[in-house]
Amino acid sequence: MSAPPAPARPPVVLKVAIVQQIDSLNPFLAVFQSSTEVGRLMYDPLTAYTAADQAVTEGLANRWESSADKLTWTFTVPDGKKWSDGAPITAHDVAFTYNLMLTDEVARTANGSFVTNFASVTAPDDRTVVIRTKTPQVTMLALDVPIVPRHVWEKVGSVKDHANDAMPVVGSGPFVLTEHVAGQFIKLRANKTYWRGAPKVDELHFVYFQNSDAAVQALAKGEVDLVNRMAPAQFDSLQGKPGVTRNKAQGRRFTELMINPGAQTRTGVPIGDGHPALRDVRVRRALAQAIDLDALVQRVNLGYAEKGAGLVPPVFGKWHWRPEASAQHPFDPAAAGAALDAAGFPRGADGTRFALRLIGRAGRAYDEQASEYLKRSMSDVGIALDVRLVSDNQLNEATTAATYDLAFSGWSANIDPDFILGLHTCAQRPGADGKGGTTDTYFCDETYDRLYARQLSEFDEDKRVEIVKQLQARFYDQVPAVVLAYDNALEGYRSDRFTRFTTQPAQGGVIMAQNGMWGYYGAEPAERVAQAQGSRWIGLAIGGAVVVVLALAVVLVTRRRRATAEERE
């Protein structure tokens, strides 16, 4: 009689809390951090960054070389890598992705700055991609562009209208998107044929919460396994919580206060309804001087942040910039008031110069608390703030249409500074129809653009570092936004369910919001670690027993041999 089959092992599910909505599952359109996070799990780029030290490593390509003049780059896509539907990944997929971006303005929405300097992209065979650039481009190993399957996307009629939600979505990454219910959850399953090897979890679920308070409570109750971007008070509340481990890291994000400088399309046509006073750089500088950044970090961030300055966070070391004392906008309400007087905006009889609208995200603790602080700060210099906190999508719509005066925003910078700097070039403004491009602040400045072009072609790293700092200084001087703070990444996970997560970098790094997918890919379920350890102990026990038996056998044989020898003598 045969033994009954062993019961099926339930899948290991990693549940991750998110409070930001998804703007798009289409990788050419996705801009929100939540959306790009999911995209990195679904699609590999041409080259990637290691988890340990963020060095360039293999992505879909495993080899690359440039011509002596740095104008031609040849990448090799090795045989054997497959899309999640089993089709082979080839150089033609890479060429198709880049050429779609070059020929379709809408396809450049999320990552257009990476290909602006491309002259041509070809795939002479299945294994070889050749990219030619108009001028030398130092970022060719930092192209953070999701590569899509040609055999799927060549059937897409309109990139603008493609939701990319035919489940399961064909991808190349460690997870496959299987279900998405807007405002509720996103479900992915492990790609068992992933070329790096299958993830250690079977499924990955992103669960929506209205606010971070609810997400943190869910973590404490064990309803989810991982939370990030907690408010300081929430992070502190988890100290000593059984089954929960906290992770504080120097994050790659910054929080900013955008100031509408007079938004225009890339052809110079005004759009939106920003307050006309904000077109005057003297007014924007005065607003910066009215904000006590040190106090903001202490009162709102509770010290879990560093005071803002340039566009590149301090975690990226050599690229980070802070102004010299003589070039700062120091907190000085009196000087701010005098500057506003000189700009032609004196106080009225009620003490108010003019009113501005401030828009932020509802449910985000930072926006709620910082808006009250800014309301008082601006009142001190005669500016009345009308604060409106809305949903993620409403905030995105308002900032995209430039129907704001001031707005809370923030970005995650890449390891190479080019992407975050490229958000502020004139070319990143939208087209005549208001579509395409991914500008952050509608900033357009000839001096900035010249410096940006120089850094893109500078292969001497020391010289490029200096140009990158000049770019940040120019942005700071013209004040299309005030970088308020570089937030610490405040994360927590259920260590009773997952023994470890891969951080990037290895020492003091983040779990979520990485330049890659290592945090989720490297998650180690406690159950399987325990099973592996149990199997190891069983193996050791069995091995030990075998050793004992063999030892006894040797003793018996030896004794018998001795007895036989004695009998012969």
Question: How would you describe what is shown here?
Answer:
Mean pLDDT is 92; it is low at 535-542 and 544-569. The protein has 15 helices and 20 strands. 45% of the residues are buried. The chain is globular and about 95 Å long. It has 569 residues and is an alpha+beta fold. Strands 11, 12, 13, 14, 15, 16, 17 and 18 form an eight-stranded mixed sheet that branches. It has a four-stranded mixed sheet with strand order 1-10-9-8. 31% of the residues lie in helices and 20% in strands. The chain has helices spanning 33-42, 91-103, 150-153, 212-221, 232-237, 281-289, 293-299, 333-342, 365-380, 392-400, 418-422, 446-456, 461-478, 518-521, 526-568, and strands spanning 13-18, 47-49, 56-58, 63-66, 72-76, 118-125, 128-133, 175-181, 185-190, 203-208, 226-227, 244-250, 253-259, 305-307, 354-361, 383-390, 406-412, 481-494, 498-500, 524-525.
